[in-house]
Prior knowledge:
The structure is a single chain. The chain has helices at 3-27, 31-47, 54-78, 80-83, 101-123, 125-146, 153-157, 159-162, 164-173, 178-200, 203-209, 214-217, 220-243, 249-272, 275-305. It is mainly alpha-helical. It folds into two domains: 29-175, UbiA prenyltransferase (Tetracycline Repressor, domain 2, Orthogonal Bundle), CATH 1.10.357; 177-306. α3 packs parallel to α6 (125-146) and α10 runs antiparallel to α15. 46% of the residues are buried.
Amino acid sequence: MSNTSMTDDNTAARADNQSARASDYFALLKPRVMSLVVFTGLVGMAVAPGQLHPVLAFTALLCIAVGAGASGAINMWYDADIDRIMERTKNRPVPAGKVTAEEALGIGTALSVASVLLMGLVINLVAAILLAVTIGFYIFIYTMWLKRRTPQNIVIGGAAGAFPPMIGWAAVSGDVSIESVVLFAIIFIWTPPHFWALSLWRDIDYAKAGVPMLPVVAGREVTRRQIVIYSVLLLPITVMPYFLGFAGLFYGIGSAILGGIFLFGALKVWRQKDEKSAKQLFAFSILFLFLIFAMLLGESIVKGVL
């Protein structure tokens, strides 16, 4: 083989290695979670009263995304020991050895501070405070305190994932209102049945890692009952934007239908007591939240055009 050919091979290998490292750092930010956070934050901005310059709106969304990613990185640093044990998380960058724990902590800390500072300096103080609370809640309340200590980890800790639409609302309006609290409540009540449906068929994984998810601590029957209870609560809360007047009839009808389907799926999990129904509810719960917020966004766009 010629020296030129060997040089080309080495260059290609280095490029592949650098590409892999970049993807590992990106995975550290939990991009799938980040995408949902950005989307709900965008909807909060869209339905809020007032307008934000497109550059400022992009900056606010960037801060929300970076803050969410920073939380994910610090979560991976702290949870590396149990992530190595669980089948679902063992290939994450830190437990897989692709990124060191120190790197994860450093990146997460730097991005947390940067996102909050940028939000405060460029957008407004209320949005920055909410972003700081979100990051702090996810890291200190959920990850470090609740996750390994109580089966209520998802119930209380779910608040961290429910803040983004409030942050988006505050970025535009500069305040917190009943409308933004309702958007928060939709995600807050949605989170337990969403994760408990997952835990019904991942309970062995959680048990191995010593994470006290509800089916591990209280059993599957109690978990199924709690899924139904939260699904019943979710239905009226989901429809509330229509009754408060910041969503239209299309949303009102659509959200009622989606809430009914969610409740039907929860009842199916309770009655059938099988893995298949739990997987179906988990999959639908993701679609449910996306469609709820997509309808709010769609109505906002139509209202702006008309």
